Amino acid sequence: MQNPVTVEVTRGNRVESRHRGMAVAVDGAGRIVFSAGDVEAGVFPRSACKAMQALPLIESGAADAFTLSARELALACSSHSGEDEHVATAAGMLQKAGHDLSVLECGAHWSSDQQTLIHQARTLERPTALHNNCSGKHSGFICTCVQSGWDPKGYVGYDHPLQAEIRAVMQALTGAVLDRDTCGTDGCSIPTYAVPLTGLAHGFARMLTGEGLSPARAAASRRLMEACMAEPFYVAGTKRACTRLMEVAPGKIFAKTGAEGVFVAALPEQGVALAVKCEDGTSRAAESMIYALIARFFEPGSETRDTLIAMANRPLSNWNGIHVGDIRVTDALFA
Amino acid sequence: MQNPVTVEVTRGNRVESRHRGMAVAVDGAGRIVFSAGDVEAGVFPRSACKAMQALPLIESGAADAFTLSARELALACSSHSGEDEHVATAAGMLQKAGHDLSVLECGAHWSSDQQTLIHQARTLERPTALHNNCSGKHSGFICTCVQSGWDPKGYVGYDHPLQAEIRAVMQALTGAVLDRDTCGTDGCSIPTYAVPLTGLAHGFARMLTGEGLSPARAAASRRLMEACMAEPFYVAGTKRACTRLMEVAPGKIFAKTGAEGVFVAALPEQGVALAVKCEDGTSRAAESMIYALIARFFEPGSETRDTLIAMANRPLSNWNGIHVGDIRVTDALFA
């Protein structure tokens, strides 16, 4: 199946580049309420599913035992930019669990946000594992291991009890079979599993609505999503897409990006969850796609919808600030 | 016309992302010797055509009048990383023409190369126009203006005599009509014109072979391409694709990238020029495409061909250095 062109990038009066992709919106019962492209194809959710991966942090009792704040829970679901507040918060989570950064197995990298990287270059010799965009998720993993009585060593491995627990949670939420065949290795070394885009969206719709979940899992899901919406800076960072999206309409949009052009969102008022994948893995397109898809679910004429449409169809400027073209979504997503 | 998938990005045993694109190889007479995708569609060459834009620097007599070195000529054709040597060389060119960086109209930006940006952040308050990746091209423009008796002010504008001259040169080389309709504004504020990919490749094939050119233009073309091949660091920078490509087989490959997934190359021994455009504008795909397309023109079993194939089909590692997948070209480009 051919995925449609969902985003065009113009220059002058020509289209310079085109992005294809798929997009789906699903309710708690699994009904598809919008779809474009091959939404049954397997997609690696990458970091977009971090809130799912954080469920054992709540369900194990670790979040309560270590009195994790909303900021800390948001950071456990985050792909942060490595700003000072992110790094300090991750360090604090590890300290509560009786560990320090030496326990982390995510690797280290400089920030991919330019302004943060400039700050890091001026204040650090080199980044540590705490600066890794996944350090909050990994610090949550350590809390879960300690609370569950699991030796954290090797916690990123497919056979570690933590990853087995995450696999079971994600399989129940998405309805997909997660095994060695569908498994790849993520940037931070944990397993990532290819799931149909519809299954990914349905999993978030279940988390959002609690439909088909135990009361405990429904409550844990709500707690994580509410923490992210309450502390959007801790889910991403300054000027980042997830943070900006959750600031557009506080409490009305949960959103999380993943590498290679994946983006998910969940809308509490509408009871639907959304997932997009840009076929070529480009963030600029995935961002426009999720902005436009979310906009469909807000009232025509509302400020939220107008803001989202303006984010989806945005001008591009050059180094002198001159308007040179636009990024715009096609009518495959928003007519 | 549907462009084929030319590059796949894998994770585990799945394809995670796909890039489509077009590719063409043309000889000096304009014969198409390889083609994939819609190679007659208009494409903005962006920085890929800088060697064409530098022809007036030679033809005006400025290069001789200001005794420009091979390094300076290479920098005039470059999209450099803003490393110290690039910045100093651009400043030297301006000084020879009796100007300084205040004459530049390209705007300023931090390096897009991470290691260079870290160095810049530690040594600079902020970048200047000399750090702009186009500062070598613009310094060449200033030399041309001074030699030609044109006031440099407004030299980036469509109606300035410099841009009119560049337009005439590029129209003659590519055979395309360059006018306000096909014109967009580039990142550094000069005009960029949509031309068919075949026309872009034919233009470079003419520069390479001299076919259909005046002796003076043929000599100027050869001089610029030879300068780039002799000083590949000054065309891009440390670890950059253009620099690495021209180091694979010194004197046998001219190569230049442009924004939004364009890449051109010219092969002196084979007398052909190549141009690719990744439909979605992604550099990783454009790089694999040009590596594979160049490889087709070297002998099976040769070191050059094997090196290029290995560059085109390369492993991807995560933050811990673990092999997580591959970038690979499809048989649309290389069977």
TrEMBL record, chains A, B:
It comes from the Bacteria. InterPro entries: Asparaginase_II. This is Asparaginase. It comes from Rhizobium straminoryzae.
